Task: inverse folding
């Protein structure tokens, strides 16, 4: 006779909470361990031949070139909205002339890197995860192993390198298009001349502001690519599993970006910005 594992009625809510907490804990530990093992394999095989430069170029095109329009629209809207908000907000205190300084620093340090990374996580991370998950459920990855080729070298490494190269470049483009949009709104809505806007931006922003933003995107790109690849390689459950993987990767990557942004910002404030 099998034992009855059903909890008594008064304790059922506690039982369900404990069960869900246990499942979440196991999933978190499984993800942390799998992520660490995959990272170790990537850095072990990254410097060993054979190399596949054409796969890297293909991923650079998919991640970088095909994301320019989306980044341009988002960057233009971000700079414009920030200028409107800061402009009309500071106008009540006579601080409209400080808008170029505030907007340029906000874009270079935070808005440009974070918004661009979130866009890439939503567009590229989900697509990357669904593609690898589809290969996993259709046994294409097993076929790659059967041919004596490492899936890490053909699938993971090109996507990781392409993401870490393309995302900082997209961020630079987003920074400049955002500042351009801010300058246009400042001229048309706030009466700030383009010459004054550019002069105050160059006076306030230093190269450290741009470099710290780009350093953030390198970390974000690593988390986006590795999270998508790990989840794609461990997908199970057929087509339904592919859909669940796509959703999970977008949510997890966004959480990684926001949490790591806080710690990176705190680190740069303590180590870099006090010197300027």
Result:
């Amino acid at each position: 006779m099998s034992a009855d594992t059903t909890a008594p009625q008064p304790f059922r809510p506690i039982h369900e909470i404990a069960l869900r907490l246990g499942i979440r804990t196991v999933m978190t530990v499984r993800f942390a361990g799998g992520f660490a093992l995959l990272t170790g394999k990537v850095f072990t095989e990254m410097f060993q031949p054979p190399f596949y430069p054409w796969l890297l170029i293909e991923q650079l095109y998919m991640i970088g070139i095909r994301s320019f329009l989306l980044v341009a629209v988002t960057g233009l809207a971000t700079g414009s909205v920030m200028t409107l908000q800061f402009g009309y907000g500071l106008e009540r205190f006579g601080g409209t002339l400080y808008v170029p300084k505030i907007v340029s620093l906000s874009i270079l340090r935070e808005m440009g890197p974070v918004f661009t990374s979130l866009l890439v996580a939503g567009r590229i991370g989900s697509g990357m995860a669904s593609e690898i998950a589809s290969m996993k459920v259709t046994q294409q990855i097993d076929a790659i192993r059967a041919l004596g080729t490492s899936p890490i070298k053909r699938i993971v490494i090109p996507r990781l390198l392409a993401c870490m190269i393309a995302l900082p470049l997209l961020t630079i483009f987003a920074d400049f298009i955002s500042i351009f949009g801010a300058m246009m709104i400042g001229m048309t809505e706030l009466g700030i001349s383009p010459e004054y806007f550019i002069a105050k931006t160059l006076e306030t922003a230093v190269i450290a502001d741009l470099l710290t933003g780009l350093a953030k995107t390198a970390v974000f790109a690593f988390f986006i690519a590795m999270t998508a690849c790990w989840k794609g390689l461990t997908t199970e459950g057929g087509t339904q599993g592919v859909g669940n993987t796509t959703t999970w990767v977008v949510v997890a990557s966004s959480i990684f970006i926001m949490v790591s942004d806080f710690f990176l910002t705190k680190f740069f404030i303590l180590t870099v910005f006090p010197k300027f």
